[in-house]
Amino acid sequence: MPYTEYWNPKNETLPREQLQALQLRKLRRLCEWAYATTPFHQRKFDTVGFKPEQLKTLDDLRRIPIMTREEWMESLQEKPLFGDMLATDPNNAIRYHLTSGTTGRTPIRVLDGMKDWDWISEMWCYGLWGFGVRPEDIVYFAFGYGSFIGFWGAHYACEKIGSLVIPGGAQTTEARIMQIIEMGVTTVCSTPTYALHLWQKAKERGIDLAKESNVNKVILSGEPAGSIPAVKHQLEEAWGAKCGDTAGMTEIGTIMIFECSHQPGGTHIIEDHFIEEVLNPVNDGPAGYEELGERVVTSFGRGFIPLIRYRTKDMVMKVPASACSCGRTWDLYSGGIRGRWDDMKLIRGTNVYPRAVEAIIREYAAIDEFQIYIWRKEEVQDEITIKLEIKPGHEAEWVVLQQKLAKDLANAHEGLRFNIERVEYGVLPHFELKAKRLVDVRPVVQY
Amino acid sequence: MANTDTDLLGSRLTEQERELLNVYEALKKLASQDDLPPCAARNVRRALMSMWQATNDLDLQFEQLYEFGV
After folding, report:
1. What is the pTM of this model?
2. What is the ipTM metric for this complex?
3. Residues contacting residue A191 through CB under 8 Å, at least 6 positions apart
4. Which of these, A293, A350, B17, B38, could form a disulfide with B13 (CB 3.0-4.6 Å)?
5. Hey, of B57, B61, B63, B67, which one would you mutate to test binding to chain A, going by the most A CBs within 10 A of its CB?
6. Does B30 touch chain A (CB under 8 A)?
């Protein structure tokens, strides 16, 4: 029997009226669960007098207060390690992951139970199957497998699909290239930046991946570039393969959008497992189709940490399902995640908040002024460099400080490498008001 | 055995859906037994975890399983 195009034909083609009825039913149950089990949500709902039984239509969703990352961080700081957001005993967890925090060293820590962790891979199955991954595929993960959630879910999704999974793990880029060719890999999962880096390194060794590898699909995640036409075109030429974008976040543990094999220039929303609202970032009113707005997500998956109307700060533009020819009834984000409404930067898949970086730098009394300099190495790899001036009289501390600061910053950012560069005293601009210590010289994205 | 005739949208269950839901309910019943040997207890939970995905994807149930450690 030939494969169906959809992972879940029933819901991926469900008429929108029924899809919304399903979302309303799930939303009410999720709110009942969250209210009954988590002090965080009890407090939030009570503050505005919201009761789950008030959810009569999907429009009633707007009665629920919006949840912010700052509130989550406050909860974590007031009640370490997980705040008052856990809906069940931590002993029920089988998995721990984290993402970098908005301020200082405190990361956002998440726990998953058995079914939640499997649900995370289930969402990846929707996306991977939708882009054409099948049991016959040999899938390579160019991924470091740390406590950053990254491609963990995709790895287990490919096992579930029945593909042969090759975990790239801690190897050199050169070793990974050789493994991709030697093992006849058909699908590579990577950030866009690293996919370009792999191609460039292969080229330096005289290897043409488009001709010498069997790769026909590259699954991209972790950076917006996967939906930027110019980058995608470059990657598809380089690899001789179709490139598909996906996007997720540690806060929900998995992807909520994916590009299907029809490559419509956007990413479908997995609408039977998420409600994705797009709001006007100024007045929080709903944004219509083809209007830029802010993503606000409600997830029906991870029951351990219920996420209801979570403000993401992601910039998106929703378009109707009819914008794609695949037959799914799920709406899309045209151009995927287009950027941010706040100052968060994405460096090689890791969230970096300038405030958090500054809080760590300020712990070092020997540092006078600094600059967070974000740039692109050899046109493919995003880098973050902290340029800093040492206070006169503290020069002897530089060598130790350089190593320790790099380690502190990496520890607070899922192991991300920070370059630490000392500049002569007086070279950096000094500010009295409205300091601008962030300089991002990467090329501006074009949709 | 499943004690419902309809899915979350109120549509009648197909024969296939009923079978899936029956397997899911049977696994829940097994998971609630506290005298299974570890090899059975833990693998029943793994199976229940998987059946939750199938039955949830098909709109047959939407519930939490932490009481079973799943």
Report:
1. 0.90
2. 0.97
3. A220, A221, A222, A223, A348, A349
4. B17
5. B57
6. no
